[in-house]
Design goal:
The structure holds two protein chains of two kinds. Chain A is an all-alpha fold. Chain A is flat, with a radius of gyration of 16 Å. The relative contact order of chain A is 0.13. Chain B is mostly helical. In chain B, strands 1-2 form a two-stranded antiparallel ribbon. The longest helix of chain B has about 30 residues. The radius of gyration of chain B is 20 Å and the shape is globular. Classes of the chains: A mainly alpha, B mainly alpha. The interface between A and B is large, with 35 and 37 residues.
């Protein structure tokens, strides 16, 4: 049990790191882009550009929340 | 050497260099305070574990995942690593977080090593072994991920490996010659640059890999192909510079004690 807890903590520290909001921002931005694709709202060049802009926007929001929190 | 290969080697070199400097600080602290035999035994054990991990992770990623899923997985990991580094670099540049200092890190590690009790097993000091193992393995896994992800996505694993090997060799050589933490390395600037690189490549591959959820499960195409990585790099650089200026203005005033704690975080 101790080993399992240590194993999970290692990977949490490794992937999520000091600030969970960064991982949450990345997943949220990518999920939003997938939603736009599967709903047929966007495709091709517009879709990849929206994906990048969503990543910029969610990162900015996570930084603002970090500083103001 | 082609431009993309040069970029790949340069990126893995810089990212690995920063990680190796951090690992070296931990091993030096253990070696000087608790004994070299235990510190080097922990380092050697971590290197063996890393080799096994690299083979397993590399095989699993390259064999089981289709191209688009691989791009999405490695891109997302690179993005998270890169943006964590960029976050810290932005906060440091805006004065909201203390600068990382290897000398301070070394002082903290040596103080902890001196304060820890001594328990020996098979002639090895358990504390020095465990701290060296954990330090080298943790920093090493990041290097392994960066090398595997960059190598597989760019289709040139050997070039990525060479970037990391050269970085490791230089850090080891400097450590052996100087016998002290490499505090003269502009680590904060390096981390900023590496954060920008990882975030740009990560954005490129993660968004490309989202095609796995589309009809046909094919990778998405960026306008301009690989050249769009440069546009993404410029975008992340610009955004981070804007945040460096804007974030201090958005910060709520904090009590002095809380501010000190936050700076050190």
């Amino acid at each position: 049990m101790k080993f399992l807890k240590g194993f999970v903590m290692f990977w949490y520290d490794f992937i999520i790191g000091d600030d969970w909001k960064i991982a949450a921002a990345v997943v949220a931005a990518l999920a939003l882009t997938v939603l736009a694709m599967t709903a047929g709202i966007l495709s091709g060049t517009a879709l990849v550009i929206v994906g990048a802009v969503a990543l910029f926007a969610f990162f900015t929001v996570s930084m603002i929340v970090d500083v103001r929190g | 050497m082609q431009g993309t290969t040069l970029g790949l080697v340069g990126s893995t070199f810089l990212a690995s260099f920063v990680e190796f400097v951090e690992a070296l600080t931990i091993v030096l602290a253990m070696g000087f305070t608790r004994g070299w035999r235990s510190a080097l035994a922990g380092t050697a054990a971590a290197l063996v574990a890393l080799a096994a991990f690299t083979m397993a992770a590399g095989y699993a990623l390259s064999t089981w995942l289709p191209e688009a899923a691989l791009q999405l997985t490695v891109g997302t990991l690179l993005l998270i690593f890169g943006l964590q580094w960029l976050r810290k670099a932005t906060l440091r540049a805006s004065g909201l977080k203390a600068m990382h200092d290897e000398t301070e890190e070394y002082a903290g590690q040596t103080a902890a090593a001196k304060a820890a009790g001594s328990r020996r097993r098979f002639g090895i000091d358990s504390f020095a072994f465990a701290v060296s193992f954990k330090g080298v393995f943790l920093e090493g896994v990041e290097v392994v991920f960066i090398v595997i992800t960059f190598g597989l996505s760019a289709g040139d694993v050997p070039a990525a490996v060479w970037g990391a090997v050269v970085a490791g060799g230089i850090v080891l050589l400097l450590g052996a010659l100087l016998h002290r933490p490499l505090s003269m390395i502009p680590e904060n600037t390096l981390k900023y640059g590496v954060g920008l690189l990882l975030a740009s490549f990560g954005t490129y591959w993660a968004v490309e890999g989202l095609g796995v959820f589309g009809i046909g499960h094919e990778s998405l195409d960026w306008p301009g192909g690989d050249l769009s990585i440069l546009v993404l790099l410029a975008g992340w650089l610009l955004l981070s510079r804007v945040l460096v200026v804007v974030l201090p203005k958005l910060k709520r005033p904090a009590p002095v004690a809380a501010l000190g704690k936050e700076m050190a975080r």
